[in-house]
Amino acid sequence: MWRTVFFDLDGTLTDSGEGIMRCVQYALDREFGIKADSKDLRSFVGPPLREQFIRFANLTPEQADRAIERYRERYRAVGIYESSVYPGIPEMLAELRQAGLRIALVSTKPTEYCREILRRVGITQYFHYVIGNDKNIPVAGKRDAIEKAVRVIGNVNRNEIVMVGDRRYDVIGAKQCGVGSMGVSYGYGSRNELEYEWPDCIVDNPTELRNVLIGQLRAGTQVGYPSQGGSLNPNVVREAAKPAKKGKGLRLGETIYKIWRIVYPILLHLGISTVVVSGLIIVAAVIEGLVSLPGGVSVYDLVNNQMVLLTGIADAAVVPVAWLFLRADEKKRKAGRLESGSLKRNKMGILHILLIALLAIGIAQAVNFLIALIPYEDAVYEETSEQMFYQTGLIMQLAVIGVIGPISEELIFRGLVFRRIRDYGGFWPAAIISGLVFGIYHGNITQGIFATIMGVLFAMIYEHYGTIWAAIAAHIANNILATLMNAVIDRLDLPDIVYIIFLAVTFIAAVVIGLYIFLKDKKVNKI
Question: Which label site among 17, 107, 125, 316 has the fewest CB atoms less than 10 Å from its CB?
Fold first, then answer.
């Protein structure tokens, strides 16, 4: 039975979003010249500021501390007054206290701010304790704040404590400290965000919150449990309070959603490509039926034989759509709605781009050499290569195969597929699974093996540098060299020793560069 209630402040008791977001805008603008739209800053309401500044603006810990000082500069003067209590909260607190529950405010906000806000909105009298951040016992996150509250109150059974908040951080902190957790869906966190962390229950308004807390207290009293010591089995209370849709059905639904979220970008790429290519061919057939070109030229054959051009148009159509999905995902990660969070940006100048290109080229040459040793004739690959490299001009090949294709594929297979798998697990499962999917998508064994290995490499580069453009640079470098070798160099009939020397030099360079990038270079994202 819960006898002590820890309340979060922002988004749970008070609607303080406007003041918080304005202070964040002020801090980012004044300290770093970053202009942020308030609609993108809702994620700052609830979580620890330091963590959110790092996540949202890719700041270093030191820069985040400077941003917090700027934030407090405005908050002390103005922001603290830009909040209001949610309707029904004072009445709910009064009834909880009357019912005999012990009430504490537990926040990562400085204690002096907490007290001032409670005083200003008129609910100070309902709290037995106000516990926030101060110099004597500083707190870095919700877990620290809850542990501090447990120590300050003293002589309290953790099974009799529940943390009430509107964000996943409140639920996670409660679980880490071994206390109960309740989510409120009317604040700044969504119900989906809360359900993902499996709190003991979720309520939609202060009335439901009051009913659950007082109801479980009365249930415990009615069955004769003493006021101290023994308690009603908390699992019974929690199961009764959970939303009806929790359970196997929800878990199955979540699993299906996660799989669909990973799969549909691939279907999107395939669908747009098919529609664009088929549409252009159909249009050509219709034109041929209506118009006769001089010299008996077939419009249909003219278009149908330009598969590289058609592929380029299709890939170009994929790019803006994939980019919109990628940006939407990043906003969710910055808002803390996806477990993996945003990747931190690593330094990537001209030198790094050159190193990335050489790494991709060296590994690609080694993989191609190993594939060539396999005693297997891949007719599908030979036909594809013939169509791609020998029936189209070099400029068109470089534009489509060398540039547009890599951008399209990286946005889909690394920016969406890899990162979405990464949202639900570790780096290596995400890199390997997305690499296999990338290989299978190519539709033949030779390209499939090559694309799988290179896909894992591109994922490593993406994760290390924290930007999709790093993976795109590696992919473009590989494809441009492959295009030049197939269209130009292979036709020069150079001695085998030249190729062997080139292979050895590029592979050794790739190994050295790879060791430097992944072992010696600054690590901002753990692989």
Answer: 125
